[in-house]
């Protein structure tokens, strides 16, 4: 074989590999169920709409379920598993406030009736998160599918991997980098706090005992502190507070305006102003009324949805999302 022919064949192989990497880098692809369950996405959307249309406040918990799944063992549906002999992720303290499991179960049941044993719970989580956001005036995006369900779920791994509302910018950077997410992803995905509520316990220290001396967090607007103190008394861990006051049911860019005004609810929100890149993104979105936020959020959600996925023959397709087969 001539040298030129060898080089040409090598180039063909390189091109083929690059195409394969680009189109199927994580074993995921658009239209994955087109032949095996063509109605899958429409069933997921219709069933999700049945819940979110009646209770729009479910959108935030359903989005959060996908976040909490992907940050522990990757997007493998492990957050849905019930504890057995050992405690599962959903019993970890950060996950005790998770809601929406009944929606996922209903969606899975509807999909199973149409296509038994085909669509994974991990894929359902990703689709429900997308559909929930779009149903409350947020962006929509194409979700690459083909995730398999994991068989392992450990409480300790949830504690070790989930980003905390008490994290500073260094901790957030390390946490996101460990998942292959960068500082822009951090700033963008934090924008998910534009919807939903939080228990007072997740930020109460900022109001009453920030450094252990009975003080408040100096990085929080004092007027906002006063407002929050009316809702959250010392030691209150059960009262719910809107994360984006006034529009917590609508997916919009108001979150960034609040952060620039030092009215982000969590330490992790305030931390975005401690890094040049995240601070610039926050102020830009606030100044342009979130002109690129929807697009950016869609891109970062697709990226997060590829973290640590199981594909091919890995894992399984659960029959019931709360139990391994």
Automatic annotation (TrEMBL):
Keywords: Calcium, Disulfide bond, Glycoprotein, Heme, Hydrogen peroxide, Iron, Metal-binding, Oxidoreductase, Peroxidase, Secreted, Signal. It holds the Pfam family peroxidase. Disulfide bonds join 37-115, 70-75, 121-321, 200-232. The keyword Heme applies. The active site is at residue 68. The record marks 64 as: Transition state stabilizer. Ca(2+) 2 binds at residues 194, 244, 252. GO terms for cellular component: extracellular region. Binds 2 calcium ions per subunit. Binds 1 heme b (iron(II)-protoporphyrin IX) group per subunit. This is Peroxidase. It comes from Hibiscus trionum (Flower of an hour).
């Amino acid at each position: 074989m001539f040298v030129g022919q060898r080089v040409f064949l090598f180039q063909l192989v390189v091109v083929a590999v690059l195409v394969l990497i680009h189109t199927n880098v994580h074993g995921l692809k658009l239209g994955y169920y087109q032949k095996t369950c063509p109605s899958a996405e429409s069933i997921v959307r219709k069933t999700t709409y049945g819940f979110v249309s009646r209770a729009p406040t479910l959108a935030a918990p359903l989005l959060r379920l996908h976040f909490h799944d992907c940050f522990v063992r990757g997007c493998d549906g492990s957050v849905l598993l019930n504890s057995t002999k050992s405690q599962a992720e959903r019993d970890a303290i950060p996950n005790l406030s998770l809601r929406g499991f009944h929606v996922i179960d209903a969606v899975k049941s509807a999909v199973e009736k149409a296509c038994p044993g085909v669509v994974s719970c991990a894929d359902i989580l990703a689709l429900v998160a997308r559909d929930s956001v779009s149903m409350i005036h947020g962006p929509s995006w194409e979700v690459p599918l083909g995730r398999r369900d994991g068989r392992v779920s450990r409480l300790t791994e949830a504690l070790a991997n989930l980003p905390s509302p008490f994290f500073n910018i260094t901790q957030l950077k390390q946490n996101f980098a460990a998942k292959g997410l960068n500082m822009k992803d951090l700033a963008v995905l934090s924008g998910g706090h534009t919807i939903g509520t939080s228990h007072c316990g997740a930020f109460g220290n900022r109001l009453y005992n920030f450094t252990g001396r009975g003080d408040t967090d100096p990085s929080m607007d004092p007027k906002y502190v006063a407002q929050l103190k009316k809702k959250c008394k010392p030691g209150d861990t059960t009262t719910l507070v809107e994360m984006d006051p006034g529009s917590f049911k609508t997916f919009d860019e108001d979150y960034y305006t609040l952060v620039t005004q030092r009215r982000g609810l969590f330490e992790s929100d305030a931390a975005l102003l401690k890094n040049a890149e995240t601070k610039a993104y926050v102020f830009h979105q606030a100044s342009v009324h979130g002109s690129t936020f929807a697009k950016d959020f869609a891109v970062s959600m697709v990226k997060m949805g590829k973290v640590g996925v199981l594909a091919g023959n890995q894992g399984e397709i659960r029959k019931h999302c709360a139990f391994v087969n």
